[in-house]
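Illustration 12: Vesicle amine transport 1-like.
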Amino acid sequence: MASEPGEPETALMIEENKGCSGPMVVPAEESQQVSGGGVVEREARAVVLTGFGALSKLRVMKRSVPAPRRGEVLLCVKACGMNFLDLMVRQGNMENPPRTPIVPGFECSGLVEMLGEGVENFQVGEGVMAVMCYGAWAELACVPVENVFPLPPGMSFTDGAAFPVSFLTAYLLLFDIGRLREGMSVLVHSAGGGVGQAVAQLCATVPGVTLFGTASSSKHEAIRGSLLHLIDRNADYVTEVKKISPEGVDIVLDCLCGEHTAKGLSLLKPMGTCILYGSSNMVTGETKSFFSFAKSWWQVEKVNPLRLYEENKCLAGFQLLPLLTRPDGATRVRHTMARLTHLYIKGVIRPRIDSVWALEE
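Figure caption equivalent — predicted structure in token form:
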């Protein structure tokens, strides 16, 4: 779990799943509640966010799980990922927060339990991983088929639950938006988190890339092997980066927002790109802080767009979830997952798992 603001880490919840009956399809004549393809709705446990706020707003409950609709896959979840975004959702620290009650979670792995009408490219009982717009923290989850991916040979369920969000985010930031190429330089904040560690591994696949990372000092020992230039998150990282690279860097990956956005822009070389993909500075405790929220966004609003073209710099933004609901976005995600899966099979990349928890914990 995230141990402090600005240090998003991947954690997992996993246990023996009692909500799955084993891969099955129930004949229509035996069903009690028929949905679409004639399969039974049934109850399964899930972690439910009952309202925004502290951890006390999370409850393990039994919920009715509908049968998969056309184009959906019902998964027997074996492991589900926990990311810093989940903390922001719990606090309601988002521009358009979902309505509660809701089952959190954006990634999971497990077995195909049932297939909705029209789904032909998966088999019941097949091991898969998935990304979704909420609903992963449950024993059973219905997911659009375009967001379900085969579990590659040798990948555990725990790795499968920690893989999609971090590596999709890192790859799209670096290669699709940042256009990472040989000899470029990158600064990533929260280098000890899931995305930060994915960025480090993907940068290592490109020759001559210089990677700078910020992280709290308590994380340095664990991640020192993945970054040559590791800087304390409370240090003057602008000065530290320029000691090594006086002209600055080509790409800044900013999940902090607020005052760090202006600092990131100041570090960019001409033709460089600063990409905002989070705002963890808004999270300062167990509940939402309106002061931190206002301060962070006010500092972002101070960026002068006229200076961007005068200095030949680019300020971009990225969020994974909206891509999942757009046909063109889902296609991009699928192609990216194919590349990432290939790198995993080759042993080039691996998710960094902070800890493993049972569902009730």
